[in-house]
Amino acid sequence: MRRTRLLAALVLIVPALLMMPLASRIHSENVRLKYGTTHVTREMRERIGQGMAIALLAGFRGVVADFLWIQNNDYWMRQQWLR
């Protein structure tokens, strides 16, 4: 009886311990894919505005990217390259 409990505990604990590094890597990959490689700073957050930030969080990255492209193209046409 005691041997069976020990064996059952080993069957549950050993695979869990072996899976921990894999789970950690999967979690870090998930975070990287969710947020991308760009670090969001306060300056970036203030530049895009609240409406675009909500759109980014809602999953409309393509739409926000188009609006930012249009805005930056306007700066380029007005020769405000550093803005």
Quick rundown:
This protein is an all-alpha fold and about 80 residues long.
Strand content: under 5%
Our Rg estimate from Cα atoms comes to 24 Å
Tell how many strands the DSSP assignment holds: 0
Distance between the termini: 74 Å
Number of helices: 3
Q: How many separate structural domains?
A: 2
Estimated helix fraction: over 70%
Spans of 5+ residues with little confidence (pLDDT < 50)?
none
What shape does the CA trace take?
rod-shaped
For the biggest sheet, the summary is: none
Instruction: Please identify the structural class as seen in this structure.
Output: mainly alpha
Average pLDDT taken over every residue: 80
Q: Give the ordered list of helices and strands.
A: HHH
Question: Which helices and strands appear, and what pairs or packs with what?
Answer:
Layout: H1 2-35, H2 42-58, H3 61-77
Structure report:
The protein has 83 residues and is mainly alpha-helical. The chain folds into two domains: 1-37; 40-83, no CATH class. It is 82% helix and 0% strand. It is built from three helices and no strands. α2 packs across α3. The longest helix is centred in the N-terminal third of the chain and has 34 residues, at 2-35.
